[in-house]
Specification:
alpha+beta, 8-stranded antiparallel sheet, 10 helices, 22 strands, elongated
Length: 525
């Protein structure tokens, strides 16, 4: 049931008067649309800004008149207006009306209702309580009147003139019209057409809602991906800070120990010199005092003893050479920390460049594979042909970097996609010898992994059989040579250990997955 505000024009906020259907589906009064178009050039819908008309060479009134009129809304507004009037009996005029005739649309009091039901002309009419009648029901019960005789019921519909007419008009004014059908038949026909339109619109609405839901889901994935990337950046930066901090502490500790050793040595030397200085100063006082009391006989006896004593003292000022040597700086350690930081920063730069490095397929992918989009997209030319669907990365893989593809097209069935790494360079890999080259590869299938010429069961890759458009699958090799499988950005765990270098990412698209696109690489920790 339409709410009262749904019968109001969004511009004038009054009940609709000749409601016009805009191309976007919104309703506005005819005069409101004309005023709105005259107020500004290229005026769009005031509710959604969609164009009202693509191009118009005529006046705004002609343009608006060309728009379809919502006659159903017009009838609803008129019915609502009837129900909103003072409920007075149309016969008595000063008596409250409690009933309404659905065919005549006249309001009646209780007494007049009884008379209305007894008259032969109105005996079959539906008379209901005003409190139970809605504008929709009242509009649906309105009789179809002849377009030329407003007081006569229409029985026919002229398709040529698009008018409901009475039998007299059909026999006179429309007797030469080729298509004049019974009105009830025409109503049933348009009801069927509207039912089909409703079905199509409901299906389109559901599909659009699903598409919006998918886009919303992708937006959420983007938010999650952004958060994950931010966390990865924080981890890398924290690792860099920790690396610098650890090396800083080590260098400081080393410098502290070196200088502590030299400081102790210098303190020992200083203590020895101080002791020697004390002895020299004491003997200086003795000699000075002996000279002051000269020429007493005691001086003769002390001179030889003082001479022997002074000669026994170490009067030299030479110090040990290594005491004054400056400790060696930790140049090599500093260079090492700089090198490691530069490596980390280089990896960060590759991850954050405006055009990040991408996993690019090599051209040697078989005669049934077409490479497009800068060799990033691989599409199977001949479907339903097994084999010849191998694509390999152009460059060797980097450690701790995810290489993944997105499924762009599937043809039904088990949408299986094999992937892994190979030690054979793309130039040396031949599609015809793919089975022979497996010995130097690690290939992941839905329920097994081929490694070291053996099929090893894996319990977590069943998702590879249920891939759909938009699914992402990838591989990553850690710095410890462990191969990980990723599905839709989630790490599925270690698939194989001790994968020998070099690594080239390899994908074998089966008959049901016909098109994949390589995505930008991303670092993982």
């Amino acid at each position: 049931m339409a709410q009262p505000h749904e019968r109001e024009c969004a511009v004038c906020t009054n009940d609709f008067t000749t409601p016009k259907i805009l191309p976007c589906g919104h309703l506005l009064c005819r005069e409101c649309v004309i005023s709105w178009m005259d107020s500004k050039p290229d005026a769009g819908c005031p509710l959604c800004r969609c164009p009202i008309v693509e191009q118009s060479d005529g006046s705004s009134s002609d343009t608006v008149d060309a728009l379809p009129t919502d006659f159903v809304m017009e009838a609803l507004v008129e019915s609502a207006r009837v129900l909103s009037k003072d409920h007075l009996c149309c016969v008595c005029e000063d008596v409250r009306a409690d009933f309404i005739c659905m065919q005549c649309q006249d309001m009646l009091c209780s007494a007049c209702t009884k008379v209305h039901k007894k008259q032969s002309a109105t005996r079959s009419h539906d008379v209901e309580s005003i409190s139970t009648v809605t504008p929709e029901r009242l509009a649906a019960s309105r009789p179809a009147l002849c377009a030329d005789h407003g007081d006569k019921h229409a029985e026919f519909f002229c398709r040529e003139h698009r008018l409901a007419v009475c039998s007299a008009c059909k026999a006179n004014k429309h007797k030469v019209c080729l298509e004049t059908n019974y009105l009830n038949d025409e109503i049933k026909s348009v009801q069927n057409s509207l039912t089909d339109l409703t079905k199509n619109l409901v299906e389109a609405e559901q599909k659009l809602e699903q598409a919006i839901g998918q886009v919303t889901s992708h937006l959420q994935e983007v938010d999650v991906s952004e958060q994950e990337d931010m966390e990865q950046v924080d981890k890398v930066c924290n690792r860099l800070h920790k690396l610098v901090e650890d090396f800083c502490n080590k260098l400081k500790d080393k410098c502290r120990k070196q200088h502590l050793k030299i400081r102790k040595s210098l303190c020992d030397v200083k203590t020895g010199l101080s002791n020697r200085l004390g002895k020299v100063t004491s003997h200086k006082h003795i000699v000075t005092r002996a000279v002051a009391v000269s020429p007493r006989p005691a001086l003769i006896h002390m001179t030889q003893a003082l001479t022997d004593r002074v000669n026994s003292l170490d009067l030299s000022t030479d110090l040990q050479g290594d005491v004054w040597e400056k400790p060696l700086s930790s140049v090599e350690c500093c260079q090492e920390v700089v090198r490691r930081i530069q490596e980390e920063l280089l990896m960060l730069k590759q991850m954050t460049e405006s055009e990040p490095p991408v996993f690019v397929f090599h051209g040697n992918c078989g005669k049934n594979i077409c490479l497009t989009n800068g060799n990033r997209t691989a599409e199977k030319i001949k479907l339903n042909i097994s084999g010849n669907g191998v694509v390999v990365s152009r460059d060797p893989m980097l450690a701790n970097v995810l290489y993944e593809v997105r499924v762009d097209s599937v043809t039904g069935g088990n949408n299986e996609l094999l992937l892994g790494v190979t030690r054979i360079s793309p130039a040396g890999l031949t599609v015809t010898k793919w089975s022979e080259d497996l010995k130097d590869s690690v290939i992941i299938a839905p329920d097994w992994v081929f490694h070291h010429r053996q099929r090893v069961p894996i319990p977590f890759a069943k998702e590879l059989e249920r891939l759909k458009v938009g699914s992402r699958v990838g591989v990553l090799v850690t710095s410890s040579n462990d191969l990980h499988l990723y599905i839709n950005g989630r790490d599925q765990g270690v698939v194989a250990k001790n994968v020998r270098q070099p690594w080239f990412a390899v994908f074998n698209i089966g008959s049901s997955v016909s098109k994949v696109t390589a995505l930008p690489t991303s670092g993982r920790t």
